[in-house]
Amino acid sequence: MIQIRFFARLREMLEVESEQMELAGVATIADVVEQLQQRGGVWQQAFGGGNTVMMALNQEMASAESAVADGDEVAFFPPVTGG
């Protein structure tokens, strides 16, 4: 099981801060994203359609190809800009 966390605009849009996901069929962060998109509705809007979403694995920046393992934490957040 992995822990998934959502931050900023994503948390507001999805109306959830965190959840747990079974690893069945999940090997990478891209697999996590695919399962989230398959929920449709706001999930598809948040993770599909060319939206840019940043990812972290165990509190370190990661890519979609990063492998996930039991007990990992995957976090999603929108790109951050400075000013």
TrEMBL record:
This is Molybdopterin synthase sulfur carrier subunit. Keywords: Nucleotide-binding. GO terms for biological process: Mo-molybdopterin cofactor biosynthetic process. It holds the Pfam family ThiS. SUPFAM superfamilies: MoaD/ThiS. One of its GO terms (cellular component) is molybdopterin adenylyltransferase complex. It comes from endosymbiont of Ridgeia piscesae. GO terms for molecular function: nucleotide binding. Belongs to the MoaD family.
